[in-house]
Amino acid sequence: MTGLILSRLVSSFIALLGAALVAFVALRLAPDDAARLTLGAFATDEAVAALRSEMGLDQSVIAQFFVYLQDFFTGDWGRSYSLGEPVRSLLGQRSPATLELGLYAFGMAFVSALGLALWGAHRKGPISDGVPKILGVLALGVPQFWFGLVLLIVGFEMTGLFPGPAGRLPATVTPPDGPTGMYTIDALLRGDLRTFATALHHLFLPALALGLLPFGFLYRLLRANLQDISDAPFALVARAHGQSRLRVMVATLLPNAIIPMLTASGLIFGQVLAGSVLVERVYNWPGAGMLVTQGVLQQDYAVVQVFILLSAVIYIVTNLVVDIVAALIDPRLAKGDA
Amino acid sequence: MSGLLDIKNLRVGFGAVTAIKGVSLSLHRGARMGIVGESGSGKSTLGLATLGLLPDFARCSGEVLFDGTALPWDDDVAMAAVRGNRIGFVHQDPMSAFSPVHTIGTHLTRAYTSAHPGASKSDAIKAAVDRLDEVEITDAKSRLGHYPHEYSGGMRQRVMIAAALIGNPELLIADEPTTALDVTTQAAVLRVMNDVVESRGMGLILITHDLGVVAEICSDVAVMYHGELIQHVSVGQIHEQAHSYTEALLKARPRPGMRGQRLPTIAELLPEGWSDV
């Protein structure tokens, strides 16, 4: 197991360097001069040259790359020229909103995929198995922003059950102060159940919209794996030992079938975080996705490159965690021979 | 006299194919019956049908009385109480009959707690160690924490026998328990199985291709052919009153002194209903 963790750490580090290189090169390929962008079209050439030298743009590309790496890992992420604030504080304000939305969306998707796949595999009826299967296919085909709008129309306009696209909390509620920046968690930490409920109420629709696609993917994956594995001789033998169908399903088949789902979860969770832009847009969710869209549109590359690298870090860390969990479940993975 | 197991007019169909065509068979308490036949003759289906473990799409009729009571195939919970507890099962493929992500100890303790609901964990572990000792797995205690892929094929097959014994059943159904093993391992596994069945006075149904194994271990032999039971005699009588098919099977065995000769074969007959496929 230690060997697995070490080798994964090394490969994670290499992947991170690769991601940094891609983000760096993409930035250098952009035709605009960062110093000129910052100072505007009317600045003198001398002022631009002075800023270029201050930003290190007059050094060699390789030297710039190392400075860029050093800055990233020491937390000096540069300054957004369009918003005039350090990127670090901008992302610090926005990321918790995206992370919270992503966690709820992914959590709902994972739990419902797990439950429905088990139920359908256990009781193969038209309701228990047929309906979720159709739902799983639809989930993969429905565009997130469209589904988000439909949810708004039904949940807000028609029935008024949920708040409209007004962000994370109504203006009348003071956001809870806390270490995570995620309102539901901070509210719970402070024991403020009313704010917790309000924040959850606001989260529900966007999380549903964002969670639909991962639900479809994870449900189909687990359902197919359960089907495959239920024909394995060890399922028959477990029943021959006197274990009930349900117990065999949960205790024997599920641990075997869930490993591909965990592996996929690592990728999907990263995708949910990095791809929440459209849903954030529909729900006016003040997350990192919105910040980055604006950054791209305004050629504010300082924001974009940090976001790319941060997404890479999230991908790599979640996949590292997933690999370790999978190896804990299946010891053959720890040895690298399965 | 009612036996340990009475199969009465059992019919099993899968789709268009009838795998078992009205078989009646009974087994006395402590008797050891070998069921022989070609692949596809319905002998494995017979074992699984008894345990109520056929796939959902199988159509079953007739009944199987165990200790005088009809087995409630339709009631999975009631059958779960019979499986492992009163009838043990040994699967033919030791490589795929264990869940690869669970330890041998988990397999055994789960089998134990299914047979003894509410049993404590330490009781289950003790029973697991005792059964592994019984099938001659050395150093059983430390081996409980190992995974199936760390065991050899012969060891796994002995563990499977241990797991089948852990609920203290009165009957063991072994479905070609040695097919997947090499010849020396086969002999060792069969000896272990024979020993435990004999010392516990259990009934045995041994499903096999191997007439030699039947002669060595079993008291009775049942011969199946295309879903029908064509003969059921005691092992000693098989040569005296062999059915023509049984005779053909016996002739098809390799024997000393046959070097250089072709083994006799049995003309292939398609099962009924297959001719128009």
Describe this structure in words.
The complex is a heterodimer of chains A (338) and B (277). By secondary structure, chain A is mainly α. Chain A has one domain: MetI-like fold (Orthogonal Bundle), CATH 1.10.3720. Chain A has 15 helices and no strands. Chain A has helices at 2-29, 34-39, 45-55, 61-74, 87-122, 126-141, 144-158, 183-189, 193-230, 233-240, 245-274, 277-282, 288-297, 301-329, 331-335. Chain A is globular, with a radius of gyration of 24 Å. Chain B is built from nine helices and ten strands. Chain B has helices spanning 43-51, 76-82, 104-115, 121-134, 140-143, 153-165, 183-200, 211-217, 244-251; strands spanning 5-14, 17-27, 32-37, 58-66, 69-70, 87-90, 171-175, 203-208, 220-225, 228-234. Chain B has a six-stranded mixed β-sheet, sandwiched between helices. A four-stranded antiparallel β-sheet of chain B has the order 2-1-4-5, with helices on one face. Chain B is globular, with a radius of gyration of 19 Å. The relative contact order of chain B is 0.16. The model of chain B has no long low-confidence stretch (mean pLDDT 88). Chain A binds chain B through residues 232-234, 236-245, 247, 251-252, 255-256, 259, 329-332, 338, and chain B through 48, 51, 53, 76-77, 80-85, 88-89, 91, 93, 96-102, 110-111, 114-115, 147, 149, 160, 163-164, 166-167.
